């Protein structure tokens, strides 16, 4: 690992050196890149939860959609680094149904491989009766199904719901929920259905409108930079927005920061 080798040769912490020598968006990008993935995720949760206010979007993108094994590793890393449990942080930073969602995700007890005989039609019917088929919304039923079923099963549920009730499931979520729980459940549903499309959508949101959410842009690119997945993200972005991710980043960034992001997505500086 770069940080270990650097310390062996020079006796200094490479993260501290980078933080001292660089700043701004460029400095943040280098800082994120030098950290091991689990250390970065733990730090992102810590930064999202300290001080006044909470960065709910960051917490959603780090906590929602992880495998049970990944979550177990993150919990161990977070406690080792910050001496607090991840669950206690979630409970102290958010409330209501978002807290419930985070806690279930953190507990990491989802049936990932279909060990129980779940029924697609039964879940579709239950979700309809919990939302569009009643006055008000049974939020707990939505959260229970979306956090306790295998991804492959849920993809079938979303497809069957669309076929039966002529509505995409993300539109159902947007109609039945509001606030950050709506954002979190939309993220979860989109991630389950197509992870590359999910990241592409969030990259677009980070760059749309007046100003760019550079922290989110950098976070999304660094956390999802493995080459096969990044190629899928770029293809999804091009297909949905009729513009290359490289071109969009070029229009929103400059200098060393832009060059670093180009390197992350595997695109040339010129072109």
UniProtKB/TrEMBL annotation:
Entry-linked SMART domains: ANX (SM00335)
Domain notes per entry: A pair of annexin repeats may form one binding site for calcium and phospholipid.
Native organism: Dissophora globulifera
This protein's name: Annexin
One Pfam family recorded for the sequence: Annexin
GO cellular component: cytoplasm; plasma membrane
PANTHER family registered for this protein in UniProt: ANNEXIN (PTHR10502), ANNEXIN B11 (PTHR10502:SF102)
Alphabetized InterPro entries for the sequence: Annexin, Annexin_repeat, Annexin_repeat_CS, Annexin_sf
Gene3D superfamilies: Annexin (1.10.220.10)
Record-stated family: Belongs to the annexin family.
Domain of life assignment: Eukaryota
Gene Ontology MF terms in the entry: calcium ion binding; calcium-dependent phospholipid binding; phosphatidylserine binding
Keywords tagged on the record: Annexin, Calcium, Calcium/phospholipid-binding, Repeat
């Amino acid at each position: 690992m770069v940080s270990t080798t650097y310390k062996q040769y020079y006796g200094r912490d490479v993260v501290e050196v980078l933080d001292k020598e660089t700043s701004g968006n460029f400095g943040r990008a280098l800082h994120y890149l030098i950290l091991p993935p689990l250390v970065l995720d733990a730090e992102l949760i810590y930064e999202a939860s300290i001080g006044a206010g909470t960065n709910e979007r960051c917490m959603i993108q780090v906590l929602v959609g992880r495998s049970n094994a990944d979550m177990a590793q993150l919990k161990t890393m977070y406690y080792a680094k910050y001496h607090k449990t991840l669950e206690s942080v979630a409970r102290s930073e958010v409330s209501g149904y978002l807290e419930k969602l985070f806690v279930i995700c953190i507990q990491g007890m989802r049936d990932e491989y279909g060990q129980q005989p779940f029924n697609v039609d039964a879940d579709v019917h239950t979700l309809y009766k919990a939302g569009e088929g009643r006055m008000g919304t049974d939020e707990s039923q939505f959260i229970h199904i979306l956090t306790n079923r295998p991804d492959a099963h849920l993809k079938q549920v979303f497809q069957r719901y669309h076929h039966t009730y002529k509505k995409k499931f993300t539109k159902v979520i947007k109609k039945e929920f509001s606030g950050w729980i709506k954002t979190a459940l939309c993220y979860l549903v989109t991630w389950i259905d197509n992870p590359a499309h999910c990241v592409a959508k969030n990259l677009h949101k980070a760059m749309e409108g007046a100003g760019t959410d550079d922290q989110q842009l950098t976070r999304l690119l660094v956390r999802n930079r493995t080459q096969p997945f990044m190629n899928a993200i770029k293809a999804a972005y091009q297909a949905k927005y009729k513009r290359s991710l490289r071109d969009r980043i070029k229009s929103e960034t400059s200098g060393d920061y832009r060059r670093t992001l180009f390197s992350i997505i595997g695109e040339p500086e010129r072109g």
